[in-house]
Amino acid sequence: MKMLVSVRSVAEARLAAADADFIDLKEPRDGALGGLAVETIAAIVRALRADASPLPVSATIGDLGMGEIERIAAAVRAVAACGVDYVKVGIEAAPGAAELLAMLARCGAAIVPVFIADRGVDPTLLRQACGTAAFPAVMADTADKRAGSLFDACPEAELRRFVGEVRRAGKLVGLAGALRLADLPRLQALAPDFAGFRSAVCDGDRAGALSAERLRALAAALRDPIALALP
Ligand SMILES: O=C[C@H](O)COP(=O)(O)O
């Protein structure tokens, strides 16, 4: 299971690059999928490429409503133009979501739909995303980071179905949602391709500073699943 870390600046990206497998660009203060200014995204991508970092980079477009298709299309174009490998777009079970997925399928960017799983994942929307060849990966994440982790928001059986369905579609599957060290054994059992972290690798809450110590500890725990299984 690989480790995705969300960062908001060049300094944080360089810090995370020492331990992470994927670098994800977002403004954690602005919600689950808070977007950074495109200038910041472009500057982080330039810095990582200048460092010859081999890590794939994703960026979010911001927390936009399912009905805001034109705004989302424009944001996807602007973020993709920054040179990121993947553009993450939140998908909620709300009117307009199916049309949004259809637009994203045609938009030409490498889109990762991120299912907001606080109230479960809509099976019809998930089927649509899994049936869309243009999406290289599909994620689940939570919007309300104070309500516990993804495991508090979503029954484990549902997460297992999510992982299985995305994997059977031949896509990478990622899980996130205020995941903590204590969640790693359950995560390892679900075995997504990658897990996303911000809250667990910050001093204080997810809006705080990224912690090199917490990053190292999490990376070590992910590398050593046997130790995780110990009491
Ligand atoms: O994409 C991953 C998320 O940024 C994870 O953030 P979180 O651990 O605070 O839910």
TrEMBL record:
Q: Which InterPro entries match?
A: 4HFCP_synth
Q: Which domain of life is it from?
A: Bacteria
Show the catalytic activity: 2 D-glyceraldehyde 3-phosphate = 4-(hydroxymethyl)-2-furancarboxaldehyde phosphate + phosphate + 2 H2O
Keyword annotations from UniProtKB, A to Z? Lyase, Schiff base
One Pfam family this sequence matches: 4HFCP_synth
EC nos: 4.2.3.153
User: Briefly, what is this protein's role?
Assistant: Catalyzes the formation of 4-(hydroxymethyl)-2-furancarboxaldehyde phosphate (4-HFC-P) from two molecules of glyceraldehyde-3-P (GA-3-P).
Protein name stated in the entry? (5-formylfuran-3-yl)methyl phosphate synthase
